[in-house]
Amino acid sequence: MTDLSQIVKAYDVRGVVPAQWDEPLAELFGAAFVEVTAADAIVIGHDMRPSSPGLSDAFARGAAARGADVTQIGLCSTDELYFASGSLGLPGAMFTASHNPAQYNGIKMCRAGAAPVGQDTGLADIRARVERWSDEGAPEPVAEPGTITQRDVLGDYAAHLRGLVDLSGIRPLRVVVDAGNGMGGHTVPTVFAGLPLELDAMYFELDGSFPNHEANPLDPKNIVDLQARVRETGADLGLAFDGDADRCFVVDENGDPVSPSAITALVAARELAKHPGGTVIHNLITSWSVPEVVRENGGEPVRTRVGHSFIKEEMATTGAIFGGEHSAHYYFRDFWNADTGMLAAMHVLAALGGQQGPLSQLVAQYDRYAASGEINSTVDDQTGRLAAIKTAYQGRGGVTLDELDGLTVTADTWWFNVRASNTEPLLRLNVEARDTATADRIRDEALAIIRG
Prior knowledge:
The protein is of the alpha/beta class and 452 residues long. 37% of the residues lie in helices and 23% in strands. It is globular, with a radius of gyration of 22 Å.
């Protein structure tokens, strides 16, 4: 039996093309997706990677062979695909490897209304079918195969976002946007068109070989060009999108990165102004400032595990108005509980343009603590190292432990979380404290155990 364990992860399909997967395999995924979702119609989009159109077309053929009518929206961002899934009421598939290197590609799948397809909500069943069919042969096409048609939804996507955040009345802003040769170069011009924004476009040419830098703004080396351009031009802020443009990172007028936790708090305050008393979801590695700001603005914070399926599930369960992750994923009830970096960026622009101060001053109220950032350590025994940390802190006075996701250790003036990577032999450490000296001390103490 074909082993898909290396490309079918917890929430999507991702691997090297064609070494790990190819168009015939994509066709099987299309057929399996239709069977598992019991869909009679689906929507498909793809990013700018050279392999994306072929994989997308193959998936469409497999889906149509099982009787589903397929709407292909072509080049799009992942949140544009979520918009299509939500607005059309169709299950969707997005062909992208997000921020991963050029040789990779993948599929992000969702049910109608952009509801997640996770390991326990269909992905395991899809994988089982594909493994069986890849060894035994695909099932015979149904008697009446579905149709395959094309549709452009970019304008509708932009209009929907602009209906959620009104930027028409803000003061003029100079904005540098680094699209990293990814899908932000496709969506930003349409979304920002006609707004009081002077757009300085960096790397908007769609190029899946990523000739300028990797489309992963979480890595500091990939926002160096953006920081320099903001400083050189005196821009009001800079925005950096990842490869499929579902995440957005922000730098202030000084070129300094703005913590995604601060952006989460800022957007939460704005959403609570529209929806008083609402629930806001935050994952457990966001700053203490997030639940504080939520409570200060009359909302109810709810803490969850890291990962989009957990956030979306909790949002659906609680009816939350907004959710944020420290990885710069931002989820909105008004966007079918799906994540959209573009909408978060528009909230930042609206907040900044609605007052006269600089962005650094605006976000200072939301960035209250010292943080280490995520530190990865390669370890031979993830379970053993986590157990060693638990032993070191268990029973220590004034300290509490919880294992919602990995291990979180909390004291009055600091906390840290250690989580195991699902795909690599890594432990991920995040530390926050009320001052830098304490954050550095706790960081070093935890790393000594992790790497011991």
